[in-house]
Amino acid sequence: MESYIAQIAALKQRYLPDLLSRRNVVGCGIGYKVREGVQTRELSLVVSVTHKVHPSALTPEDLIPAQMEGIPTDVVELGVLRAFSGPRDRWRPGVPPGVSVGHIRISAGTLGCLVRRGSDLFILSNNHVLADTNKGRAGDPILQPGPADGGTADDAIATLEAFVPLDFGTAEPECPMATLLANGLNALAALLGSRHRLEPVRQTLGVNRVDAALARPLRADLVRPDILGIGIPTGIGEAILGLPVQKSGRTTGHTTGVITQIDATVRIDYYGPSALFEGQLVASSMSQPGDSGAAVLDLDRRVVGLLFAGSDAATIINPIADVLTALRIELVTA
Questions:
Q1: How many domains in the chain?
Q2: Which of 37, 154, 190, 331 lies 20 to 30 Å from 116, alpha-carbon distance?
Q3: At 220, is the secondary structure helix, strand, or coil?
Q4: Among residues 254, 278, 291, which one has the least CA distance to residue 125?
Q5: Residue 198: which of 218, 214, 179, 216 has the closest Cα?
Q6: More confident residue, 272 or 200
Q7: Residues 182 and 51 in one domain
């Protein structure tokens, strides 16, 4: 099976740009094919779409073939995949993972779990929960509950420590010549009476693997490691197709699901700009806005990922190994 999965993964990488350019496509991954609403044990290249339409409404270029190089495909309807942020109570003392938390300028997300770097203890959640989608600065207040749940500056339990920047395909310019040229053309436009202006940007790769950030508790006794309704993580687990998983989140509480795709490349809507993520896990519907940042565990309480996005039909998860590597941290376990 592993060699066949590798074959599908290679096929996916070859055709990924073409598939993502097709109408309504939001992602591609590897999963078991569903026939007439029943999941089979047939591995396939899964193409995720916002919504299915009749083939007659699509151009030939937008149709997904039944097979690609002999490998079956499956088209699944996931809706628009959005970064989750969204309600709950104020917990004191000892704030557990699974409850409302957020940067002082966002709505609210979920405290995922506790992690360490050396002897330092941190809260783990998403960039868009703790770092206001790249706009946060080290030392910014982190509230529990999050602002959408009534949290104010008096409810700070931590400060932003670090985050992995989200790459939306553009960044601040680094070339002085580009800035000078734009300023010169803008001055000329003003002289000619134009209200339009040029803004230099730097093109970036636009590919991400994690939406993750750390916050440093104001005091170690303000937080505790046992995830609400689940318990203390026992270690790190591997997410495989069909794996039953669970999470505790600020909006939907303790829910369960199953891994339906691995090695997925998905386009995530951050309520305006979109970001492409590769190497992701897709699970069945088990979350709603506000659950972002929740740790996803198997039924033996091993953490397999960090929830960060989804839709009414699916949940999108960063593999935990990528998160730990990116932030140079380790889990706090039982």
A1: 3
A2: 154
A3: helix
A4: 291
A5: 179
A6: 272
A7: no
